[in-house]
Specification:
Layout: H1 9-15, H2 31-35
Length: 44
């Protein structure tokens, strides 16, 4: 149980892989994309 073990978190970190023990951290959408700065209000 350690760096060489494929099934442990430490082993996943050592190999640089992801799985059940070490899921990928999903990036949160940035504030700029929510507000959408480049779109302007169109007056009628």
């Amino acid at each position: 149980m350690g760096k060489g073990d494929k099934k442990t978190k430490r082993g996943k970190i050592n190999r640089g892989t992801f799985g059940v023990r070490r899921p990928r951290v999903k990036k949160k959408p940035s504030i700029e994309t929510k507000i959408s700065i480049d779109t302007k209000a169109n007056p009628k």
